[in-house]
Amino acid sequence: MEAVTDEGPRLTRKGRATRQRIVEAAAQLMFERGVAGTSTEDVRAAAGVSSSQLYHYFASKQHLVRAVIAHQTEAVLAAQEPQLSRLDCMGALEAWRDLVVALQTQRGCEGGCPLGSLAAELSEIDPDARQELVAGFARWEAAIRDGLTAMQRRGELSARADPGLLALQTLTAVQGGLLLSQVRRDVDPVRAGLDMALSHIRTFLI
């Protein structure tokens, strides 16, 4: 039986699995078709659940979209591990660049960034979703910043460097590169964007 708390339903193992199946199905459909192009009926059919099951876990499509944002944030960050958590030297940054490029190569540059795609569609029409996307991108940016800060603390990066700004510039290069790679179906833009960002970081090496 599923107990209910003030924070929502406390799910059984089976309930968690069902909820996760719904979120994964919604995330895949929204990545392929967009949020507007994905109906709750589409999600229900893809997840193999009834309407009553879907609405038991998600009161509305908006609630489901929030869950998809959280899911895609975790998926995007996890796909970059273990490199993303260890960006504390130029070799590690270069290995991360290679991983990001390889991931796009595997996907044929289709779909772009799962978070970036959601941001492009939702930022102007759903303020709550936009804030959750801001938080997701902030986690990505923080991982880059933490690595650069570690380099600076070890004396490998000049005191003139601003790890926060460098992290923002690097993430901006990633997002712009992913968008152009999606449009062109070519990994060169994301590789070029990251190469540019890493070249800028090198100017602060000691």
UniProtKB/TrEMBL annotation:
Transmembrane segments: none annotated. Residues 16-76 form the HTH tetR-type domain. InterPro entries: Homeodomain-like_sf, HTH_TetR, Tet_transcr_reg_TetR-rel_C_sf, TetR_C. Keywords: DNA-binding, Transcription, Transcription regulation. The keyword Phosphoprotein does not apply. Residues 39-58 bind DNA. It holds the Pfam family TetR_N. One of its GO terms (molecular function) is DNA binding. This is Regulatory protein TetR. It comes from Pseudonocardia dioxanivorans (strain ATCC 55486 / DSM 44775 / JCM 13855 / CB1190).
